[in-house]
Amino acid sequence: MKIICVGRNYAAHIAELDSERPKDPVLFLKPDSAIILKNNPFVIPEFSQDIHYEVELLVKINKIGKHIDQKFAHKYYDEIGLGIDFTARDLQNKLKDKGLPWEKSKAFDGSALIGNFLPKTEFLSVDAISFSLERNGEVVQQGNSSLMLWKIDALIEYISKYFTLKIGDIIFTGTPSGVGKVFPNDSLKGFIEGKEQFSVKVK
To answer: Which positions ≥6 away from 148 have C-beta within 8 Å?
Structure first.
């Protein structure tokens, strides 16, 4: 399986990082070694002094597809989940300044938290799903899929132009505003429509 991540998919997050609004979805990949094993903590890597949380809705692909038309994209997933794209912001900024790829700051070991998945039939619309992240009991991020610059089905169409989607692939659909630094002993909890989907400790 592969993890395909979407950057800059919420206008408020683009603004908070003072980034340029893209004309097309920004894509990058994480390897399977980025996945945090179930019940394991997130361990701050030694090469960064500024790791940020970025909560995101996830889409799990359920069949193989290439060049998927947006009107058929809904057939390629049955579940919606929640996760965190942990980002070494200090390293990312250095790489961006030099025009280099982001992978070292985004795809390092343990940089992808994948929480529980829910059947998409639980939602009235995948384009109106609310989600949030709590850090030590305080809400730090709130988002809704209605605010995505590119909605889920549009992302699947775009991604499948470049990458064949396979069963079990996971799409990280982008983060809303409110990203921030994690510290040792932090507790992070993610919610979809008020229901807890993951809990992770930081070490």
So the answer is: 9, 10, 127, 173, 174
The domain of 103 spans 3-201
Residue 185 half-sphere exposure toward CB, CA atoms < 13 A: 0
Provide the token pair at 140: 């730090």
Cα–Cα distances in angstroms (integers) from residue 3 to residues 90, 111, 188, in the given order: 22, 11, 21
Per-residue pLDDT tens for 31-85? 999 999 999 999 999 999 999 999 999 999 999 999 999 999 999 999 999 999 9
- Run of H or E including 7: strand 3-7
**Torsion-angle region of residue 8: left (phi > 0), alpha (psi -120 to 50) or beta?**
left
Say yes or no to pLDDT of 14 above 90: no
Neighbours of 59 (CB within 10 A): 28
Q: Which residues pair with 127 in a beta bridge?
A: none
CATH of the domain at 43: 3.90.850.10
Are 68 and 76 in contact by the 8 Å Cβ rule? The answer is yes
pLDDT at position 19: 78
